[in-house]
Amino acid sequence: MTELQAGEGAQVLKVPRIDARAQRYRDVLIALVAFIVLALLPMVFGSKQLLDFVVRCAAYGLFATSLNLLVGYTGMISFGHGMFFGLGAYGFGLMMQKTGVPIPVAFAATLAITFLVAAVIGAICVRLKEIYFAFVTLAFQMLIHSTILSWQSLTGGDQGLRGGIPRPPFLGIDLSRPMHLYIASCALLVIGLLLMRQIAQSPFGYTLRMIRDNPTRASFIGIDVWRAKLVIFVLAALFASTGGMIMALFVSGAYPEFAYWTISGEGIFINMLGGVTTFLGPMVGTALLLLLNDTVTRLTEYHGIVLGIVILFFAIGLRKGLMDFIVEWFVQRREGANG
């Protein structure tokens, strides 16, 4: 319980404190259950296509959810967030090809490189407001993409990293085996989502919401808005980079398209499909987009038109993401039943 006192002679008002520890334990339990379900999924269905689909969902889901930390929770619309997805793929791939270090070392080193790059770019971008922030992040992404194309001796240019990515076994894990890669991808997905959930529900996460709603008032009450934006920018970059590393392992390479502006566009599209006001909205949007791409490309060559119609449906028809719509409908139904 917390005590609030309004003034001299006023009564003490006791307000129940939200049990953050119980909520944290609940989130961890949900994460464990989700991982167990994903791990058992191949035993039930035994489809290679399903394994591949889940691995792709893990890569793009981490990327899209990290973007929502900026868009949905902080109000920072980034048109260049895909640069960190590409940086993760290329950084990890080059580390494995050129140095031959163990996979965990390459993973940690790639995150360290991403941290440094994101800190430098973020220190410049987060000072800007709204549309300027969006387009400067896009400019940095195009700079990184151009560097990948022009530095052929290192990156392979427009052909991407060729020769595959070495996957030496470590701790009994062999990522060259599809099942091991599947389990590792599921583990990274669940851990990443759990960490992002804790960030969103922490006092820092509510500070981000305050900055999103009214940055001037947040600054007035003593919040260092620039520092908070920089921290979440770097954290989001690390999770996006993790998604890029999963994708690099999945395709055993890295390609310039991973760092092109269309990746950022897909991230924004995913968030629009799934919704930005619910934490799992981007994951739902990821599954929807991948299903649409896989289905539509098999049925017609005009997949761009179909995706355009879907965008119009969500933008003009629902005017919100699928999860936002479902949650709002459920709340209205419950209030109607209680009223």
Automatic annotation (TrEMBL):
The chain crosses the membrane at residues 28-47, 53-71, 103-124, 131-151, 179-200, 230-255, 267-292, 304-322. One of its GO terms (cellular component) is plasma membrane. It is found in: Cell membrane. Keywords: Cell membrane, Membrane, Transmembrane, Transmembrane helix. The keyword tRNA-binding does not apply. GO terms for molecular function: branched-chain amino acid transmembrane transporter activity. The keyword Transcription regulation does not apply. It is a multi-pass membrane protein. This is ABC transporter permease. It comes from Bradyrhizobium macuxiense.
